[in-house]
Write a structure and sequence with these properties.
By secondary structure, the protein is of the alpha/beta class. It has a domain of about 220 residues: NAD(P)-binding Rossmann-like Domain (Rossmann fold, 3-Layer(aba) Sandwich). The protein has ten helices and 14 strands. Helix 8 packs across helix 10.
């Protein structure tokens, strides 16, 4: 099949592209004018993917990309994602996350109307919810950040396009994923990198409860959904169902690593761009019944297994020269 991946240079996009190439698909990736640094994640498959230069915020650029590959499936993972930065500068998020999705939807409808769109949303669209039960897909969206608002708006646009224009779109709302290397701006990777270096760790919201999903399980969800026609038009939470407080996660990693340093709870790292405390949902745990029922997806990694794998991967990479990305 011809497959277009937006966000192909990203954490999950690059892993998804590698899996698609391995199974024999013709993989195309939409990339902005990119430096070698930004393409580093694709170095093992560069010769086996077709990179199309374009920009989600420009409709004709997106249309040209869709025309160039005539895709059977589009995995739309391209987005601006750092939540905290969206509070101070929301406008690029509106352009990429919402306008970019609208542009892609209409490029598909015009050029490849029978193609499937599988779009990456986020658990962040749920925002404030009751803290006594996992969140279902039909919960009212209460986004708690400019980033989350743009993703919720994109979800609604796809829902509308499914009904009005007969778009064949599916939305996935994944929980926090981990398993990155050399990217310490995310909570799990921040803790791993700091603890392996024996440095002081800060846990800004120790009592907040979240799910954490290993990257391979995240990628499996996209592949499983793409192989199931029943998922067309649906929205699915993607979550392993392993709720844990930020404090508990820090203690788990401390035990796995054998960390002997200091952990400061209730304070963010010096200079870290803080998400407004009053806006941080204390509970963000998703129900995964629908995707398990319709698609038969289920996580392969328990939280402990995933964390141990992530730590060993980081340890292995730490013996080699750190990449520039």
């Amino acid at each position: 099949m011809n497959v277009l991946v937006t966000g192909i240079t990203g954490f999950i996009g690059s892993r998804l592209a590698s899996r698609l190439v391995d199974r024999g698909d013709n993989v195309y990736g939409l990339v902005r004018h990119s430096s070698e640094r930004e393409l580093k994640r694709l170095e093992t498959i560069t010769s086996r993917v077709h990179l199309i230069e374009g920009d989600l915020v420009r409709y004709h650029s997106v249309l040209s990309a869709v025309e160039a590959c005539d895709p059977n499936i589009i995995f739309h993972l391209g987005a601006l994602t750092p939540v905290r930065l969206s509070f101070d500068d929301p406008y690029p998020y509106i352009g990429v996350n919402f306008d970019g999705t609208v542009n892609l939807v209409h490029a598909i409808l015009r050029q490849s109307p029978n193609a499937r769109l599988i779009a990456a949303s986020t658990a962040e669209v749920y925002g404030w919810q009751p803290a006594d039960r996992p969140i279902r897909e039909d919960a009212m969206l209460k986004p708690a950040s400019p980033y989350a608002v743009t993703k919720a708006a994109a979800d609604n646009y796809i829902h509308m396009a499914n009904k009005i224009y007969h778009l064949r779109g599916t939305i996935l709302r994944p929980i926090n994923s981990y398993g990155r290397i050399w990217e310490s701006g995310f909570y799990t990777e921040y803790l791993i990198s700091k603890m392996l270096r024996g440095e002081t760790c800060y846990v800004g919201a120790p009592d907040s409860i979240r799910d954490y999903m290993y990257a391979d399980d995240h990628v499996d969800a996209y592949l499983d959904v793409a192989q199931t026609d029943k998922s067309i038009g649906a929205t699915y939470n993607v979550s392993p169902g392993n709720p844990v407080t930020n404090l508990e996660l820090a203690k788990k990693l401390s035990s796995i690593i054998g960390f002997k340093g200091k952990i400061i709870f209730g304070s963010y790292p010096p200079g870290y761009p803080q998400r407004p405390q009053s806006q941080d949902p204390p509970y963000l745990v998703l129900e995964n019944v629908a995707i398990s029922r319709d698609v038969h997806w289920k996580p392969k990694f328990t939280l402990d297994e995933g964390l141990k794998t992530a730590v060993e991967l980081w340890r292995t990479k730490s013996t080699s020269r750190e990449p520039s990305f």
